[in-house]
Every structure is written in structure tokens, then in C-alpha cells.
Specification:
CATH class of the largest domain: Mainly Beta
Structural class: mainly beta
Strand content: over 45%
Number of strands: 46
Radius of gyration: 58 Å
Number of helices: 1
Distance between the termini: 128 Å
Largest sheet: 7 strands, mixed
Length: 629
């Protein structure tokens, strides 16, 4: 008899998402056949191999005779092998084989074969096309299941600005450098370009009516605006790139070819100028023009000239106006003149220019082209080292004597001591006290005083008591100004107070308590009068400002729960809680002999009420704090 074998693939399956696993499960089957029958009931060893992997076992077999024809039977059932693909996009041919030791004739049957596995793609190439530019990034690899961060490299193109990447040569921006790319496919990204544009602006350069800005496109010539600006007394010559150019570089309607932004400035040529006034001088003088610091006339001198660029242009008029510096009413006089240039020297004022006042002057020159120029000049009053007022009751230094006082009109310093017999007053009309408080028998009201320091008993923090009150201003001094006040007792050792005047109203006085004003602990002892509530009671009360701390010591008597009011003790009115209600405290017991204690002060009667679990002769303590009025 003879035997043969065959081995073959029955199925190929993807393992999971094959782009992630890159694996197949391959099923392999091994069959043997005999022509005149063959069997072996004893275990026979067999091996099935696939792509370097082996699976072995033992089995028996029984094949009936085929009368010379092959009769087949399976060995070891179907075996599954997991195959990993080596490269993305590349197929693989796997080899497989099988053999069995039959223990009969023939003693060994074997077979082999091969099978091609389809390619699996799990990586793709992302390439870049500069699309007319240069410097595109190198290719990148996109792996299945993860986003690719696109290259941050940007290509360049002369005359264009790079905007991003598109998926077609003419498409819009789909991706930007450094953005995430998640497409699982081989892709070419194309650079998206925007042609550069440049702004051409116009500056009238002292004129008006400049054209609106224009946009120049890269590589495309720009026809400049034909609009021309205007400027009084000037001819427009053209445009230049410098504000101070004397000759134009471009004419209206010319071609601009530069690929850059620019501001074009109008270039002007003077065609006419208004009359010129030079060397103007004004001085006090006598009637004959002789200069005099105490003169009541004014001598005015100046040169003038009219423009002769275009045609003859003679002077039309020259006038002089003047007024006291503090006045708004002008006096005027005319100057006779002719021709195109000249000099004026004239005396005005008619003896009416007071030496005490300053004066303003205006000189105006007009020409035959209706152009005019005005120039101003001012002089002060006469200079007085020292002056005496008529009648002998006023003296002034550095100014005219106009008041019946000693008046100084300049900054002053003294090298020796000055004794002042009266007070000095500030610019607001209030006395500079130099630390001396002001007092008035009728009482100065601190609510409205402008004095820096007063002694008064009106509207003080301590009613009707005399107190020092200092007032502080900033910037201005009036009854409506924001200010602050400090108050101190006049002739007692007491507290300091302060308050503010803000937004039209005074705040309340705030007290600063001195340390020696705080009450010491003061002990008062009251005894019961045969009542069952207690044996003895001690109370300590410490008041600090508006807070009172009350300590109570009570020696208990025999009995259970007790409650009542301590009739022998009345808390002073100014040591009571400020509300019309009981203020109570509960203390947690400490030890078996100390019961919970509840104590109350009645703000109306000043009596202490209590509830306690007593034990004879055991001391109890309670402390509570409350606010007083």
C-alpha cells in the first residue's frame, strides 16, 4: 500500500483593525491518504508548521481501502497561525508544511505549500509642493490612528505671502504649518499664496485735497492719481518721497513701479507771500520820541515788505492798535505809507499810557493783493525800585504805590530777625497762628471754622467741654472743602478724637482711648440674704471702649437646679448691653461637680439672672463679653 499527504490554507482573517495590528490569522489544514487502507490505533506524532511557527500533537487514524484510489482523512484538525506583516503597503508569501510518523508503511507522510497574504497599509506619505515657490518641507509619514503634526517650515515666493496649505494646486487653505493632519491617505499639500499689495499714500505737505491712498500689486505697475492738492500762495509741482524735497519725483498720473509701500509728499513752489513785518520794537517815551521808562507815550518801530513774485504789489494800509493789558477795548491809529517796502517809526498814545499799567500792541500791514499780516507786542508798567503814593500814606517797593499800605511787589528775603506785632494772614484771609490757638468768647464753631487751631466748647466731641481743635485742608480752604479735624481736651488728661468732612458732611467723632483710661478690674462682692440661690457672689467687669467683659464667681449652695435673679446686684447703666434684650452665655461643665451655667444681664434693669445645677460649696465661674452703648 502507499500513502500521501497534503497541507493547505483554509481561511485568512484580519486581526482587529488590521491597520493598527498589521496581523492576519491564517488557518492551515493537514490531510493524509492511503490507496489500500491504513490504520494505527496508537498515538502517532505530527507537526504542522507555518511561517516559522510549529504546532504539534498526537493522533490515531483509520483509513479504509480505496481499492487503489486515495482515501483521505484529517490529521490534528485546523491549526491557526498569527502572521505579522513586516512593512506597510507590502504583501507577504508564507510557507507551511506538515508531517506525521504513521508507525505503518509508509512510516512518515509529509507535505508543504505556500500562500500569499495581501498587503496592509498603515502608514502614508504626506508631501509638500511649494506651488511656484521654494523651500517646501521634506516629506512626512502619517501613521494610522494618530494625528500628524505638519511641518512648521514655510516656503517662500518672491512677491507673495504664504497663507497655508491646500489639498489641490488651486484650492483654499486647509492646513497651516504646525497644525494637525488626520487623513489616512497619501497626500500632497500645495502652498497657497497671496500676491503682495503695497499702499501708496499721499500727504498734502501743508496743503489740502490730497488724493486717497492707492494699492500697488506686486509686479503690476500703478498709475498714480491725477488729483492735485492745493495750497494758498503756492504752486503744486508734483510728488516726492521726502517731505523736504525741493523737486518732484512723480507727476500726477505717472507710473509707480516699485514693489513697496510709500508716502508721497506734495512739492510746492511759493507763488506769493503775505506782507512781512520785521524788527518790531515798542518802548515807553516822551512826546518827542525820547525813550523814557516813565513815559506816557509809546514809540513803535518796524520794517515792512510786500511780495513781488508775481506782478506789482504795493502796500495798501498800515495800522497800529493798543490797549491796557487788562482791557478788551482797543484804540487804533493809521500810518501813512506807500510803495513795496519801508520802515515805520512813530509815537502814539497822546500821553495816556499810564505808568502803572502794561499795554498790548498790534501792528497790521495789508497789501494790494488783499494779503495781510498782524504782529503783536506788549510792554509792562514802569519799573519802580520804590514809589510813594500821593498824600504820603502808601509806600511800594518794586511796583507803583496804589494802596495806603507798605506794599512789596517782588520776591523778598530778610537776613535778620523780623518782629511781627500782629498776626500774619494767608492767601485765604485766615490767620497764621504759629501754634497759638484762636479763641472767641462766643465760641468758634469747628463745623465752619477756617482757622488752623482753635479753643472752643461748641460742637466738641465732649459736649460743652473746651477742647483744642486743629483743622487740616488740602488744595483749597472753604467751608465746602474736604478736610480733617483733630480734637484734644483743653485742660484735662483725656482722649484724642478725629473726624472728616467728606462729600458735604461731617463724619462722627472717633475716640482714641489712652491706655490709662481703660478701667482696671474692680471687684464688688454681694452676699445673699437667706435666699436659697447661693452662698456668695463676686462680679468683675472690665470695660474697654464699647466692649464689656464680665467675670462671675459663685460659691454654690446645696440643692438641685436653681434659677432666679440676683437682687443684691445692679450693673451700672453704662456697663449694660445696648440692646433691650437679654444677653446670655452658656458655659460647658467641667467635672462632675460643675453643672452647665446660664447667665443673663437685663439691659433695662441691670440685674443678673441665672440657671445652674448647684453643688454645695463648689465654686463656679462664667465669663462673657457684650457690647454697650
Amino acid at each position: 500500500m502507499a500513502g500521501t499527504g497534503r497541507v493547505y490554507v483554509t481561511a485568512v482573517r484580519n486581526v482587529g483593525t488590521i491597520q493598527s495590528t498589521h496581523q492576519y490569522d491564517v488557518d492551515v489544514r493537514f490531510d493524509i491518504a492511503f490507496d489500500w487502507g491504513g490504520y494505527n490505533n496508537a498515538p502517532c506524532s505530527y507537526t504542522i508548521s507555518c511561517d516559522g511557527q510549529n504546532q504539534s500533537g498526537q493522533t490515531s487514524f483509520s483509513v479504509p481501502s480505496g481499492g487503489g484510489r486515495w482515501v483521505w482523512t484529517n490529521i490534528g484538525n485546523t491549526k491557526t497561525f498569527r502572521i505579522t506583516m513586516p512593512n506597510s503597503g507590502q504583501g507577504k508569501t508564507i510557507g507551511f508544511s506538515a508531517s506525521i510518523n504513521t508507525g505503518i508503511n509508509p512510516p512518515n507522510i509529509s507535505a508543504s505549500g505556500s500562500h500569499g497574504l495581501a498587503a496592509v497599509t498603515w502608514q502614508w506619505t504626506v508631501s509638500y509642493n511649494a506651488n511656484g515657490g521654494s523651500g517646501a518641507p521634506p516629506n512626512q509619514t502619517k501613521t494610522y490612528g494618530s494625528n500628524l503634526t505638519l511641518s512648521s517650515t514655510k516656503p517662500t515666493r518672491f512677491g507673495y505671502t504664504f497663507k497655508g496649505w491646500a489639498t489641490s494646486p488651486t484650492g483654499g487653505v486647509s492646513y497651516t504649518p504646525g497644525s494637525a493632519f488626520g487623513v489616512d491617505a497619501t497626500t500632497t499639500l500645495y502652498a497657497v499664496w497671496e500676491i503682495n499689495k503695497y499702499t501708496v499714500g499721499y500727504n498734502a505737505n501743508g496743503g489740502s485735497g490730497a488724493p486717497a491712498s492707492q494699492m500697488k500689486t506686486y509686479g503690476v505697475n500703478l498709475i498714480l492719481s491725477s488729483t492735485k492738492p492745493i495750497r494758498t500762495n503756492y504752486n503744486f509741482l508734483g510728488w516726492a518721497t521726502s517731505q523736504n524735497a525741493s523737486a518732484p519725483q512723480y507727476a500726477p498720473g505717472a507710473t509707480y513701479i516699485n514693489n513697496e509701500s510709500v508716502t508721497l509728499y506734495a512739492v510746492w513752489n511759493l507763488s506769493y507771500w503775505e506782507p512781512k513785518i520785521t524788527n518790531l520794537a515798542v518802548n515807553r517815551c516822551k512826546s518827542d520820541g525820547t525813550l523814557d521808562d516813565f513815559g506816557t507815550y509809546a514809540k513803535i518801530t518796524f520794517n515792512w515788505e510786500c511780495c513781488q513774485i508775481v506782478g506789482s504789489n504795493n502796500v495798501k494800509s498800515i495800522s497800529i492798535k493798543y490797549k491796557p493789558s487788562s482791557s478788551s477795548s482797543w484804540s487804533s491809529t493809521s500810518v501813512t505809507s506807500s510803495g513795496t517796502t519801508g520802515k515805520v517809526s512813530t509815537v502814539i498814545g497822546n500821553g495816556s499810557l499810564s505808568i502803572d499799567n502794561g499795554y498790548d500792541f498790534q501792528v497790521a500791514v495789508a497789501d494790494s493783493k488783499n494779503g495781510s499780516t498782524t504782529l503783536s507786542y506788549s510792554i509792562g508798567g514802569a519799573i519802580f525800585p520804590i514809589d510813594f503814593k500821593a498824600g504820603g500814606k502808601g509806600v511800594a517797593i518794586g511796583k507803583a504805590a496804589t494802596k495806603n499800605i507798605f506794599d512789596i511787589g517782588m520776591a523778598t528775603s530778610f537776613d535778620s530777625r523780623i518782629d511781627i506785632k500782629d498776626f500774619i494772614y494767608d492767601q485765604f484771609g485766615t490767620r497764621i497762628g504759629n501754634g497759638l490757638a484762636k479763641h472767641d468768647s462766643s465760641g468758634i464753631d469747628p463745623n465752619t471754622t477756617l482757622e488752623e487751631l482753635i479753643v472752643t466748647n461748641r460742637n466738641t466731641p465732649i459736649s460743652s467741654s473746651y477742647m483744642y481743635i486743629q483743622t487740616m485742608f488740602y488744595g483749597s480752604k472753604s467751608t465746602s472743602s474736604n478736610r480733617a479735624q483733630i480734637a484734644l481736651p483743653y485742660n484735662t488728661n483725656g482722649s484724642m478724637y478725629h473726624r472728616y468732612y467728606v462729600n458735604g458732611a461731617w463724619t462722627s467723632w472717633k475716640r482714641h482711648v489712652n491706655e490709662d483710661e481703660l478701667d482696671d478690674f474692680k471687684e464688688s462682692t454681694w452676699y445673699g440674704t437667706g435666699n436659697p440661690y447661693g452662698n456668695s457672689l463676686k462680679v468683675w467687669i472690665l470695660r474697654q471702649g464699647k466692649l464689656c467683659t464680665c467675670d462671675i464667681e459663685w460659691i454654690g449652695a446645696t440643692g438641685g437646679n436653681k434659677n432666679g435673679t440676683i437682687s443684691e446686684l445692679t450693673i451700672p447703666q453704662d456697663y449694660r448691653p445696648f440692646k433691650n434684650a437679654f444677653v446670655s452665655i452658656e458655659t460647658v461643665s467641667s467635672g462632675s461637680a460643675f453643672g452647665a451655667t446660664r447667665l443673663m444681664i437685663n439691659s433695662s434693669t441691670g440685674k443678673i439672672s441665672f440657671v445652674t445645677d448647684q453643688t454645695a460649696y463648689v465654686e463656679r465661674y462664667a465669663t462673657f463679653t457684650y457690647r454697650v452703648a
